[in-house]
Amino acid sequence: MLTVWAILIDGFIYASWLFLVAAGLTVIYGVMRILNMAHGSLYALGAYAAASALGWYYAGGGSQLWMAFAILASCALLIGAISGLLIERGILRLMYGRDEILMLIVTFAILLILEDVMKLLWGTTPYFAWQPYAAMGRVEIDVLTVSGYDIMVLCLSAVIGLGLWFWLERTHTGKILRSIIHDREVSEAMGVNVRRMFTITFIIGATLGAVAGGITAPIISVVPGIGIEVIVLAFAVVVTGGLGSITGAAAGAIIVGLARATSIHTMPQFELFIIYAVMAGVLIFRPNGLFGQAIARKI
């Protein structure tokens, strides 16, 4: 029974982090049909910005936890919004209407460029921002102890997921986005400014990626290459759940998180393999993912 509790707790905590990472990626693909490989670098930018700002805050004698979270959130939101705007307006807007494979290559090139830019700005020395993680202490669940910070990440993931669902399903802007998803040409003919909606969507997706990085910064050592590692995991999650589906991203994150936790506690040698085995198993029976829908070709 203890092992079951450990699997459930570890699985849902890891799933909440996976969803935070994958949410922005699936939002962008759902509306724009762009598989944004640069999402990993946006995550890394958020992590570096948050770690740097928190380092300066604590080095200057700061000790207030609420202030640390305010700095972390502000840095992640700011760098995500600015980076998203620059990438969409400066590069992607020139490529709209091109083949999806070409857009994939372009965003992968942006990923490589940003990885080098981050090395120039922050160097190759690891950055640590452990203070908020330590300050939140541990919480006892039965005979297990769980980090309070991890529980906060789980709650934040649930809030963001519900917020995205409400935005897409219950707001006027969300209805416009869903009309673009179903038929871009008809939406434009009805007077929808599709390019403006693309800009809004990309900024939101990029900001979600940077926020995920900022939230993760106190848990890890921020080093070059974390963006590339993350985009592979995020891709596995959104493909499992179905590209472009928020519900699918949540389901994919839970399935992958629980499968990984089960492997760690029972067969640790298969930890890395199990994530991609789950993805492959789902795609064998559901080629478009659990909640993905086949897109009809227009002739």
Written account of the structure:
This protein is mainly alpha-helical and 299 residues long. The chain has one domain: Orthogonal Bundle (ABC transporter involved in vitamin B12 uptake, BtuC). Helices cover 74% and strands 4% of the residues. It has 12 helices and 4 strands. The chain has helices at residues 2-32, 39-59, 65-90, 100-122, 131-135, 148-170, 172-182, 184-189, 194-216, 226-241, 246-266, 271-285; strands at 127-128, 138-141, 144-147, 221-222. The protein has a two-stranded antiparallel ribbon with strand order 1-4. It has a two-stranded antiparallel sheet with strand order 2-3. β2 and β3 form a beta hairpin. α10 packs parallel to α12. The radius of gyration is 19 Å and the shape is globular. The termini are far apart. The model has no long low-confidence stretch (mean pLDDT 89).
